[in-house]
Specification:
CATH topology of the largest domain: Glutamine Phosphoribosylpyrophosphate, subunit 1, domain 1
Largest sheet: 8 strands, antiparallel
CATH architecture of the largest domain: 4-Layer Sandwich
Number of strands: 27
Radius of gyration: 26 Å
Strand order of the largest sheet: 3-2-4-1-10-9-11-15
Helix content: 25-40%
Shape: globular
Number of helices: 17
CATH class of the largest domain: Alpha Beta
Bound molecules: fructose -6-phosphate
Strand content: 15-25%
């Protein structure tokens, strides 16, 4: 959590950094700040609250300069107040630091610094870093000061550093938390000369503008290439360009990659929120994903460096929404490939002593690829010599880089904090992966493979039509129940994960207490909650559990609960039982039905949140990438 950014180049640093923070605010948004180095001083602006507060402060007290760092915060140490906002300054005001992660030995370092007379201005763990840097900085060699400081820090961090006496230098370092360096295009040569064209009259920042960011979208539109820092790597940005070192000061060769996403992929376009845009993007996301897994109309065996035919057990590691997708992955693998599957919540797996049976494949599922608990689970699995595949959306992420093989989701940047398009892409990717394993094991004859492919290929259109079909009823239900204090979601079989996911969406963006339950289990206690004021969302498509689900709905109806059913809009029995029906179309393979069933629930959460005046893209207390434990 937290987003960091840095800029060194001819443009106005504060303006570039504000745009970068806008793109990073999904990582945390309870306060923000920046520091620009100009005229021998660091000019600091910070504000508690959303980014608009910092923007307003900059309007009132502008800063100019071409070299700076910035931060958007998700509080870990200390409440979201201005004094805890980043950047933090050293005791002598010469050094500014922004940080993402946690310095685990900050208390001991703080005690030592205080014993030396340093007065702290914040409650944060971060503040020890600028003070240590100041102690080690002789005014000549910023890199040495950083190396000495890094040697004292324990924990996970990504940091960026600016200096009052250097308007042409930024430092960055990474251990555990993600960090990218970007550089702009080479400037054109003046016609007929070997000189480069500078509109700004000088070259104090070298030939290309340079950037630092926690994530790729924040490097846009300035960077044409980027460099993901490895764990234990430092980047030194200055007129010399970018030099990389390890934490002992040994040079490392930077490996630049082209920036392939565009600025439009990270804007809202005509939508009022990223969440609305990302829900609407699901048909094209699924179509792209399915295409990527097929060649000449057949499933491609993914190049993971693993013989899929030998897999006997699969362990899924995931958190939150990705964990819900994993629950569906279990059904797919059991049904199609007859593989034994465990689904683990990463934060639990990492502290157990899991059995590393032979022929086990671990699949780490993560949209961001940076979730700290999933990453720790991956590392634990690798320490037990288990092969790990990362099912990730962000292919530059740490989980992607540390996995033995990667299954990309290709969903494009997901910026709304509530995961929507990445979820349905995860579910589809897991279905296709199960089919790929089944084929490798000889369990999927040609005609069965053809039906899987046909079922998958029909989904983008079914998703597009379901989104249209359900909207009027979604609106009606949202109007009726937006003020409800609580909502229960019930489903069976493949729709149990849908119930969990529907409840999570409503909780996280509309702040409605919601719980998802397996419908058959409801009578063992929670049914006591039912009153005529309680909306109960019953997910009841015409699948193998349909009859059982109808009986469970009867049980709720008998206790006067308000029934919102998700299912076939033309189903008379369902219509007779339910107060409202959110209609969904039918997938030709019922394993894929949950992709359709979740759509009205994503839209329902969105509409209820809007009616309750909630910020759907930036719900309170949350952040998109959970890079702390
Ligand atoms: C909910 C949501 C979270 C994430 C979870 C894991 O809408 O987005 O529950 O699913 O934090 O994140 P990733 O998938 O990035 O590991």
């Amino acid at each position: 959590m937290c987003g960091i950014a840095g800029y060194l180049g001819p443009k106005d640093a504060a303006q570039v950094l504000l745009v970068a923070l806008e793109r990073l605010k999904y990582r945390g948004y309870d306060s923000a700040g920046l520091a620009v180095s100009e005229g021998g001083s660091l000019h600091l602006r910070r504000a508690a609250g959303k980014l608009q507060a910092l923007s307003a402060k900059l309007d009132a007290q502008p800063v100019s300069g071409h070299c700076g760092i910035a931060h958007t915060r998700w509080a870990t140490h200390g409440p979201p107040e201005e004094r805890n906002s980043h950047p933090h300054l050293s005791y002598d005001g010469r050094i500014a630091v922004v940080h993402n992660g946690i310095i685990e030995n900050h208390a001991a370092l703080r005690r030592d610094l205080e014993a030396d007379g340093v007065r702290f201005a914040s409650d944060t763990d971060t503040e020890v870093i600028p003070h240590l840097l100041a102690k080690h900085y002789d005014g000549k060699d910023p890199l040495q000061a950083l190396l000495r400081t890094l040697a004292m820090l324990e924990g996970a961090f990504a940091i960026a550093v600016a200096f009052a006496d250097r308007t042409d230098r930024l430092l960055a370092a990474r251990k555990g938390s993600p960090l990218l360096i970007g550089r702009g295009r080479d400037r054109p040569l003046r016609p007929g000369t070997q000189e480069r064209q500078y509109t700004d009259g000088g070259t104090p920042w070298g030939e290309r503008e340079l950037l630092i960011a926690s994530d790729l979208p924040a490097l846009l539109p300035h960077a044409s290439e980027y460099l993901p820092l490895e764990d234990g790597e430092i980047a030194d940005l200055g007129p010399h360009g970018v030099r990389c070192y390890d934490f002992r000061g040994e040079r490392r060769e930077p490996r630049w990659r082209p920036v392939e996403i565009t600025a439009s992929a990270v804007s809202k376009g005509n939508y009022d929120s990223f969440m609305a845009k990302e829900i609407a993007e699901q048909p094209e996301v699924l179509a792209r994903l399915i295409d990527s897994r097929l060649r000449d109309g057949r499933l491609v065996q993914p190049d993971l460096g693993i013989d899929l035919a030998t897999i006997r057990h699969v362990v899924f590691l995931a958190c939150g929404t990705s964990w819900h997708a994993a629950l569906l992955g279990k059904r797919f693998l059991e049904n199609l490939a007859r593989v034994h599957v465990e689904v683990d919540i990463s934060s639990e797996y990492r502290y157990r002593n899991p059995v590393a049976a032979g022929n086990t494949l671990v699949v780490a599922i993560s949209q961001s690829g940076e979730t700290a608990d999933t990453l720790a689970g991956l590392r634990l699995a690798k320490s037990k010599f288990l092969p790990v595949v990362g099912l990730v959306n962000v292919v530059t992420s740490t989980i992607a880089r540390e996995s033995d093989g990667v299954l990309p989701l290709l969903a494009g940047p997901e910026i709304g904090v509530a995961s929507t398009k990445a979820y349905t892409a995860q579910v589809m990717a897991l279905y296709l992966f199960a089919a790929q394993i089944a084929r490798a094991k000889g369990l999927l004859p040609h005609d069965a493979e053809d039906s899987c492919i046909a079922a998958a290929r029909a989904m983008p259109d079914l998703v597009a039509r379901t989104l249209q079909l359900c909207e009027p009823s979604v609106e009606e239900c949202a109007d009726l129940y937006a003020a409800a204090q609580a909502t229960v979601f019930l489903g069976r079989g493949g729709e149990h994960p849908t119930a969990l996911e529907g409840a999570l969406k409503l909780k996280e963006i509309a702040y409605v207490h919601a719980v998802g339950y397996p419908a058959g289990e409801f009578k063992h206690g929670p049914i006591a909650l039912v009153t005529r004021h309680l909306p109960v969302v019953c997910i009841c498509p015409r699948d193998a559990m349909y009859e059982k689900m109808l009986s469970n709905i009867q049980e709720v109806k008998a206790r006067a609960g308000r029934i919102i059913a998700v299912g076939d809009g033309a189903d008379r029995d369902l219509r007779d039982l339910a107060d409202q029906v959110l209609p969904v179309l039918r997938a030709s393979d019922e394993l894929l039905q949950p992709i359709l069933s979740i759509l009205p629930l994503q839209r329902y959460a969105y509409r209820v949140a809007r009616l309750r005046d909630c910020d759907v893209d930036q719900p309170r207390n949350l952040a998109k990438s959970v890079t702390v434990e």
